[in-house]
Design a protein that fits this description.
The complex is a heterodimer.
Chain A: H1 2-44, E1 50-51, E2 54-55, E3 64-70, H2 82-91, E4 93-99, H3 104-114, E5 120-122, H4 127-132, H5 147-153, H6 157-160, E6 170-171, E7 181-182, E8 191-196, H7 197-202, H8 211-224, E9 227-228, E10 231-232, E11 234-237, H9 246-249, H10 251-255, E12 265-266, E13 273-274, H11 280-295, H12 307-315, E14 319-325, H13 326-338, E15 346-349, E16 362-363, E17 373-376, H14 383-393, H15 396-404, E18 411-413, E19 419-421, H16 423-430, H17 432-438, H18 441-445, E20 453-454, H19 467-472, H20 476-484, E21 498-499, H21 516-536, H22 541-556, H23 560-576
Parallel strand pairs in A: 3-4, 3-5, 11-14, 16-21
Antiparallel strand pairs in A: 1-2, 5-17, 6-17, 7-20, 8-14, 8-15, 9-10, 12-13, 18-19
Helix pairs in contact in A: 12-13, 21-22, 21-23
Chain B: H1 3-13, H2 15-33, E1 44-45, H3 51-54, E2 56-57, H4 61-68, H5 70-103, H6 107-118, H7 125-135, H8 142-149, H9 163-191, H10 195-203, H11 208-219, H12 221-233, H13 241-246, H14 252-255, H15 258-267, H16 272-299
Antiparallel strand pairs in B: 1-2
The chains are: A alpha+beta, B mainly alpha.
């Protein structure tokens, strides 16, 4: 009996303690990070200040941690990351990243409802939601106080300013208009109709300008090689998984000559808006896809697969073509490169309606989107030090260190004065896990940065902008491929890069929560996601036409005017600036 | 003694029980009743930054948005269809499974079967849907391979692309995952049936199936009724994960449930008022269903919940 009583008491005590213990582990870990930071600082003696040209911040001995929420899914860099550790030593600042798990809107909704924000949030085009909820601190008075931040943003402050007159976030992608850097010319086109290099090589390096030409070479290649390495060849893939739906919804606007605007077509000359989804181009395009489906080039499975299945299919090297953006399938392409299958990597071709100038390739217009940046939240205890940290990160030496690494081991100077990576470093960069755990990529990616070419000496900011690095990174197969087309870069296939107008892109325009425009936008996505697969899978011409009529009926039943009016208003506003 | 004093005295004799229940009542009040004050959001154009008092009052506008939208009624139809199918088939399978399990004489085998059967309950839906997606794939999926090998079909069927299969796929997924777990209650109820009734039936010459039909089933009838009432109350709640994960553009007309609709048009575009309005709609319907079923059960002379 006594034993039973004892057990009962122990069990209850255990339950109570576990409930309490769970609460305190959070504070424990931050305390740990703090003490770790102290220990590293003491043992490595940063008091002498310098490291290969990098000067330590004055309060480097006083460690502090900021929590950063990032809207992308990802993995936190390993604790052993040497670059991040070095930065921590020199500045005392640790950025603790939290990547998105699950649905972004839900996560932000919960954050807003509870008011418990991390110190920094990078929310991309979902930022307006947080701005409306008053999550961020205004920065328009802070930025001018810091030399580098001011140099980066001063000329584009009016684009970063929101409707209420405040600046809430610092753009982290692109090259805003400034005196220090200018945009680098693109080497490759980042979006559009991609096709395997092997297919183009097989067809004798032809110029591909129309949808018909595009599918012809794919059909020819498929007929010749029904299997690649024992796996059945897939002609054309269309990804339609949740928000990754542009492959299904967007192509028609590119055929009309626009860039990547989003749910509406904006005429490049007159800036008039219209809905490309119901245009004749769309009718013809999906009819062509329907034909290709019946020829076996497109398989019905493409509509039911999810993103992971799509990526793994591409990695087999058996997908001949798809419409996509390079960052979306980049991981698959890196794997193909790591496997040495350079002939199975992809290049974008300028496909448009006959006679229409292609609008795929762009060079930055220096106008920030106003939302694609980091914001410091009202919960941040020491924003001043954080801004000083960002300012410190923007030093030329630090940026070089983060992007290029150490001279000798990671990069070297080329004969014509440019910079290129060593082979070892390139191997690291192609390997996603090593890139994350051995380089400063994550830190650099989610903080304000310099991108482009430095005006002072013409040197590239990063590896992506270095012509020498690009050429040095080409495999033998790629060099042969470029020679086949007699061009230096794949971007030469396209017309000259377009400087995008001020309003670009439509998809980054914030729509007020719950407004009629937002509802119309969601409905447009819903209706097109529903009907386009049906159109492509139609049994014959008669069925195609009847489905098209149903589609027109439902599409026109949406309150399109409210969406169009809102977009027109925002375009006019941005163009007037 | 007044009626009130009598009740009070009765309570005092059992005061220990009442004291034990107090924390539970506080918990229920804080998490289930107090948040009902948030229902005011459904009648406003709620913006978190402005709070309840600052947001504009719009009356029934949010509800009208719901009721005027064809997509919403389609979602209601889908939700009801999938939930009712889950309910009916879930019941049948769980009870049949419990009955069959009851017939097993070997105790070891019985225990083993029971444990294995409720293991899928602990799997996350992501895993189960991943498995289903793989098995139904036209690209070397197990189901297509089997059917082709047996000669029933000559080329792979795109199961997840045809609207007519979708509701059956979700029902099957639910049954596979939940039958074992749901049958636990019935097995417990069956264990509570008086054994002497079986012996009496044996004497009267009843075979196995007649025993099941005339003794076991009536014996667990109260359990069945109670569970039926509870599940009918949840009928609009069920089925979010499977349609969300397996649903695609092709299937939208049959796979979009109320929760997914609310996610798209409420949460994702920050319209919390709409989400609350849909929530109220669901609560009202569910309450109505529970009370109706309860009344019917009462009329039929069964035990009822209330």
């Amino acid at each position: 009996m006594k034993m039973k009583k004892l057990c009962a008491i122990l069990l209850t005590a255990g339950m109570v303690l576990s409930a309490v213990g769970c609460g305190s582990t959070k504070t424990d870990s931050t305390a740990d990070t703090k003490s770790d930071g102290n220990a590293t600082a003491k043992t490595e003696g940063v008091t002498d200040g310098n490291y290969g040209g990098l000067v330590a911040m004055e309060d480097a001995n006083d460690p502090i941690t900021y929590t950063v929420f990032v809207r992308d899914p990802g993995v936190v860099p390993a604790e052993s990351n040497p670059v991040i550790k070095k930065i921590q030593e020199l500045t005392g600042v640790t950025l603790k990243f939290e990547f998105l798990v699950g649905d972004l809107d839900q996560k932000l909704g919960v954050m807003i409802a509870g008011g418990d924000y991390p110190d920094v949030i990078f929310a991309g085009d979902a930022a307006p939601k947080l701005m409306d909820a008053g999550a961020f601190i205004p920065l328009e008075d802070e930025i001018p106080k810091y030399g580098n931040l001011n140099a980066l943003y001063s000329q584009t402050m009016n684009y970063l300013t929101q409707a209420d007159g405040h600046v809430y976030n610092m753009e982290i992608y692109g090259t805003p208009l400034n005196d220090v850097t200018e945009p680098a010319p693109p080497f490759e086109c980042g979006l559009g109709f991609y096709v395997q290099k092997a297919v183009l090589a097989e067809a004798g390096y032809p110029e591909i300008r129309t949808v018909d030409e595009y599918f012809k070479i794919i059909e020819d290649y498929m007929a010749k090689y029904p299997e690649i390495d024992g796996v059945k060849t897939t002609g054309f893939e269309i990804l339609a998984d949740g928000w990754r739906n542009w492959a299904l919804l967007n192509p028609a606007q590119n055929l009309l000559g626009a860039g990547n605007d989003g749910a509406i077509f904006v005429d490049p000359q007159t800036f008039e808006t219209s809905f490309f989804q119901i245009s004749d181009t769309a009718y013809e395009y999906y009819k062509k896809l329907n034909e290709e489906y019946h020829k076996g080039v497109i398989s019905a499975e493409t509509f039911t697969q999810n993103y992971d299945q799509y990526i793994s299919k591409i990695t087999t090297g058996t997908v001949l073509g798809f419409y996509d953006q390079n960052w979306n399938f980049g991981s698959a392409q890196d794997l193909l490169k790591a496997d040495g299958k350079f002939d199975r990597t992809y290049v974008s071709v300028p496909v448009t309606n006959p006679g229409v100038k292609d609008g795929y390739l762009e060079v930055s217009n220096g106008i920030p989107t106003g939302t694609n940046g980091v914001g410091i939240t009202v919960n941040c205890k020491n924003p001043e030090r954080l801004l000083r940290f960002y300012d410190w990160l923007l030093q030329r030496e630090v940026q070089d260190y983060l992007q290029w690494g150490e001279e000798g081991t990671d990069w070297y100077c080329t004969d014509d004065g440019g910079k290129a990576l060593t082979d070892e470093r390139r191997a690291v960069v192609y390997d996603t896990a090593r890139k994350r755990d051995e380089t400063g990529f994550t830190l650099w990616n989610y903080c304000p940065k310099w991108q482009g070419i430095y005006k002072a000496d013409g040197m590239p900011c990063g590896t992506g902008e270095s012509a020498d690095e690009y050429l040095a990174a080409q495999s033998d197969y790629d060099k042969e491929f470029l020679e086949g087309y007699d061009m230096k870069y794949p971007a030469e296939m396209f017309s000259d890069p377009i400087v995008r107008p001020n309003y670009y892109p439509v998809w980054a325009m914030p729509l007020e929560d719950g407004s009629a425009a937002a509802v119309a936008n969601t409905k447009i996505t819903d209706v097109t996601m529903k009907f386009f697969p049906r159109l492509i899978l139609a049994a014959d011409e008669a069925e195609y036409d009847s489905i098209w009529n149903d589609f027109l009926g439902e599409f026109n039943a949406i309150d399109l005017d409210s969406y169009q009016a809102e977009i027109d208003r925002q375009i006019a506003e941005k163009m007037a600036k | 003694m007044s009626k009130f004093k009598k009740t009070l005295k009765k309570m005092m004799t059992h005061k220990m029980l009442y004291i034990m229940i107090v924390p539970c009542m506080i918990y229920t009040f804080i998490f289930s009743y107090y948040p009902l004050s948030g229902w005011i959001m459904a009648f406003q154009n709620y913006k978190p930054a402005k709070g309840y008092s600052g947001s504009k009052f719009v009356g029934l506008d949010q509800f009208m948005f719901l009721f005027e939208d064809l997509e919403f009624w389609r979602s209601v139809r889908n939700t009801l269809a999938m939930s009712l199918m889950n309910l009916v088939f879930g019941f049948i399978f769980a009870i049949v499974f419990a009955l069959l399990l009851n017939e097993i004489k070997s105790l070891g085998f019985k225990r083993l079967t029971q444990t294995v059967s409720y293991l899928p309950h602990f799997l996350s839906w992501i895993i189960v849907c991943s498995l289903i997606s793989n098995m139904l794939s036209t690209n070397d999926g197990a189901v297509n391979n089997l059917l082709m090998a047996l000669g029933i079909i000559d080329k792979p069927v795109l199961w997840l692309g045809e609207q007519k299969y979708f509701w059956w796929i979700t029902t099957f997924a639910n049954i596979w995952k939940e039958t074992g777990w749901n049958s636990i209650i019935y097995i417990a109820a069956i264990a509570g049936i008086d054994q002497s009734m079986y012996e009496a039936a044996e004497l009267d010459g009843a075979n196995r199936f007649q025993k099941m039909w005339h003794i076991t089933l009536p014996g667990i009838r109260p359990t069945i009724v109670v569970l039926l009432i509870m599940n009918l109350g949840w009928v609009l709640n069920a089925s979010f994960e499977v349609p969300y994960i397996l649903g695609t553009g092709l299937l939208q007309d049959v796979s979009q449930t109320i929760d997914i609709f609310v996610l798209k048009y409420g949460m994702s575009i920050g319209n919390y008022s709409l989400a609350t309005a849909a929530g109220i709609f669901k609560s009202v319907i569910s309450l109505a269903l529970v009370f109706t079923t309860n009344a019917i059960a009462n009329k039929l002379g069964e035990n009822s919940l209330m």
